[in-house]
Amino acid sequence: MLGYIISNRGAEKLIAGRPFDNILPVDEYIPIMYNDHPESDWVHYYENTTRDLRVYSTYPLLVYPTHFAGDKGWYSDTEPPIEVLQEIHKRKLKEEEEEAAKKEKEKEKEKTEL
C-alpha cells in the first residue's frame, strides 16, 4: 500500500484494534484489520478485535511507487532486500536437502540391520 485516505469511522476501527499493543508496519496492520492477511501468526494478536475495516482502491491509481519489489534501486524500510530473501531461501533449501539425506541414511541403516 502506498497512500491512504481514511474516514473517521475507519480511523476509529484502526485505533480500536490497539495497534500499539502489537507494533506492526501499517502495511501489515491494515490488511489484518480488513481480515485479509496471509500471516496467521500475526493475525492471532488481533483475535479479540473486530476486523471489518472496509478498503477500496482506485483505478487508475492516484499514487504510484517509484520502484516495485525486486526492481533495481528498490528499498523498503519494512521488507528485507531481495538478496537477503534469496540467501534465506538458499539456506532453507540446503537444510531441507540435509534433512532428506539424513532420513535416507537412517532408512538405509534400518534396512541393513534387518
Draw up the topology in text.
Layout: H1 8-16, H2 26-33, H3 40-43, H4 82-113
Can you describe what's shown?
The chain has 4 helices and no strands. The chain has helices spanning 8-16, 26-33, 40-43, 82-113. The longest helix has 32 residues, at 82-113. Residues 100-114 have a biased composition (Basic and acidic residues). Residues 93-114 are annotated as: Disordered.
Quick recap of the structure?
This protein is mostly helical and 114 residues long. It has 4 helices and no strands.
Write a concise keyword list for the protein shown above.
mainly alpha; 2 domains; 114 residues; single chain; 0% strand; 46% helix
Strand content is under 5%
What are the segments in which pLDDT stays under 50 over at least 5 consecutive residues? Answer: none
The average pLDDT score comes to 86
| Major sheet attributes | none
Secondary-structure content class:
mainly alpha
Helix and strand element order:
HHHH
Biased composition (Basic and acidic residues): 100-114
Region (Disordered): 93-114
